[in-house]
Amino acid sequence: MNIKRIGVLTSGGDAPGMNAAVRAVVRTALSCGIECIGIRRGWQGLINADFVRLDSASVGHILSRGGTILFTARSEDFMTEKGRERAVMTCKMLGLDGIVAIGGDGTFRGALELSRLGIPVVGIPATIDNDLGCSNYTIGFDSACNTAIECIDKLRDTMQSHERCSVVEVMGRNAGFLALYVGIAVGATAVLVPEHEEDFQKNVIEKIQASRLAGNTHFMIVVAEGAGSAVEIGKQIKETIGIEPRVTVLGHIQRGGSPNARDREIATRMGYYAVMAFAEGRGNTIIGTKEGDIVEIPIEEALAMKKHLQMERYKIMEAMQFGHTANRS
Ligand code: F6P
Asked: Which residues contact 175 (CB under 8 A, 6 or more apart)?
């Protein structure tokens, strides 16, 4: 495979560090004598031939910027055969020998479909959900955790002053990694995640009561959006034990902001290795991480890999509450 020109796109929910990955793809490609075309608005942009030529200067000063300069979208058209055929036509029209696709699970499913139509694709995992089985880590997760932690630390100040209960909803429609990591880092009273069937009485009410018995006068409940609505959980707490919680939905603020050191570093490495895969004659793979090292996995295999929420972490989060009770009694 003699690669002369590649396309790069970002798709699905944006994540801090996507720009760092785009920059790394462009600069690595140029260093290998490969031209780079930016496809705007994800797979939809490939259908619509929405593109921009990228040179070294066009990715200057974006390393520290959140969001994605290439824009992103979730494309319904790309799920149709007709849409994908048009995407292939764009690749041919632009003379693209391959595409680097930066995104999550949906992005990689699109990548697999395109690869089956003869366009080589290399994927880079980027989602604040960190829910991809093929990679220990996905770009954006650490920055999103830090954003949520910063907000919750602020909430705690006012909750502590007013001796209140706070219910905070964090992102994660299908995955509780963000909620659990954040819950550990803020010392939450309870964490609710979509992966577990929650026993509300045991997982929320009894924890608040135990915390109260230990002398606490404010409580922090962290709930992943896929585990239930924070507003509803707040109402249930009021109905069950009479405490009137204040509810905060952090929402899309978690997806914004400057990527932190970890996300800039890993995005740069992943971008580099994605281009090297093409330069060395490979394709149709995902660049992931395993225990900090870069790994390259065939797309189909990568999509079949599952990542499970580590129960050990859940236990650790709970132990922090019990430890507190024991110290106080
Ligand atoms: O990027 C992943 C994610 O943030 C999920 O946690 C969340 O459920 C979803 O995207 C929200 O997507 P949208 O931006 O389309 O509302």
From this structure: 129, 130, 131, 193, 194, 195, 224, 226, 309
Spatial separation of the C-alpha atoms in residues 89 and 199, rounded to whole Å: 52
The runs of H, that is alpha helices, within 140-241 are 141-162, 177-186, 200, 206-213, 230-241
CA 13 / ligand 1 centre spacing (Å): 6
- The enclosing domain of 239 has a CATH number of 3.40.50.460
| 200-209 own/partner pairs: CB under 8 Å, 24+ apart | 200/233, 200/236, 200/240, 201/240, 204/233, 204/236, 204/237, 205/237, 205/240, 205/241, 207/321, 208/165, 208/237, 208/241, 208/243, 209/241
pLDDT single digits (tens) 5-19: 999 999 999 999 999
Token pair recorded at residue 19: 């720009």
What pairing do the DSSP bridges indicate for beta strands 293-298 and 5-10? unpaired
Q: Which amino acid is at 60?
A: G
Q: Residue 322 — very low, low, confident or very high, per pLDDT cuts 50/70/90?
A: low
Ligand 1 is surrounded, with C-beta below 6 A, by: 13, 127-129, 171-173, 225, 255
Q: Any idea which of 15-29, 125-139, 195-209 has the lowest mean pLDDT? A: 195-209
Taking alpha carbons only, the member of 98, 48, 106 closest to residue 74 is 106
The whole-angstrom separation of Cα 128 and Cα 255 is 7
Structure tokens at 132: 């991809």
Q: Are residues 132 and 174 in the same domain?
A: no
- Domain count of the chain? 2
Distance between CA atoms of residues 13 and 15, nearest Å: 7
User: Which domain covers residue 205, as residue numbers?
Assistant: 142-255
Pocket test for ligand 1, best of 10, 44, 71, 129 (most atoms within 8 A of CB): 129
We report the CATH number of the domain holding residue 71 as 3.40.50.450
Provide the 8-state DSSP code for 200. Answer: H
- Please write the tens of the pLDDT for every residue from 261-291: 999 999 999 999 999 999 999 999 999 999 9
Q: Are residues 239 and 297 in the same domain?
A: no
